[in-house]
Design a protein that fits this description.
CATH topology of the largest domain: Spore Coat Polysaccharide Biosynthesis Protein SpsA, Chain A
Order of helices and strands: EHEHEHEHEHEHHEHHH
CATH architecture of the largest domain: Alpha-Beta Complex
Number of strands: 7
Strand content: 5-15%
Distance between the termini: 25 Å
CATH superfamily of the largest domain: Spore Coat Polysaccharide Biosynthesis Protein SpsA, Chain A
Radius of gyration: 23 Å
Mean pLDDT: 86
Amino acid sequence: MAATSAVSVVIPAFNEAAAIGALVSALAGGGPWHEIIVVDDGSADETAARARAAGATVIRHPYNKGNGASVKSGIRAATGEYVLIIDGDGQHRPEDARRLASRLGEYDLVIGARSTLTQATHARRFGNGALNRLASYLTGRDIPDLTSGFRGARREHLREFLHLLPNGFSTPTTTTLAFIKAGYNVVFEPVEARARVGASKIKLARDGTKFFLIILKIVTIFSPLRVFLPISAVSFVLGAAYAIWTIATQSKIPNGAVLLILFAAVVFLVGLVSEQISALRFEGRQ
């Protein structure tokens, strides 16, 4: 069990002046954290000034780089044995932060899993649910909340995967699957998310394509064969069935059947190579 004095709190924030001061003050009053770091991602409001006034150490990006870039800056600057990442929009409760921190040490990654009912919109719930189901299939274990940004981990383990983390909004997705793939102990701790202060930075129309690309990245980096193999199997079965039926009825092998079987072989071989590359990525890490 980790003491709060060993935990660095990292808060990525972009135009969160309305919430950041109260959040930092509540966290500071809830325990003797090793440090509270607010990464101001090029905000146009008073985010940095209010965070500093509340007692946080502020790192400021000269321009907006993305949530993931802010998390990476915070991890690099943190000096505690553990790092707890919490969103700067006020949706996470300080008492939950202490509860997540108390499980560090016992687990290498602790994730605040939000109740489905506390997530903002039906579209957001549907999208997150689809990602959760895909991640559960890829990893072979139940993942109730893949995209929660509320999480804590050993700093040294986070730094192992820093090169994998994107600058955008898929940092939680990547860290969760990376820790599970690497064999670290991961636990999901139920939390209740409050309504965020201000408007969300994620827009469905603008970011829908980005989240689709996140899915493709998940597949290719972490468990490619679990996707390539079913596609290959379906193609082979269709090609073989088509060939058998055509031979039985017309006494010839159709070109379409040959193409389906060849496609199945190519997809399987690509998946096999991708799986080996994925394994080397983790087995060869320092």
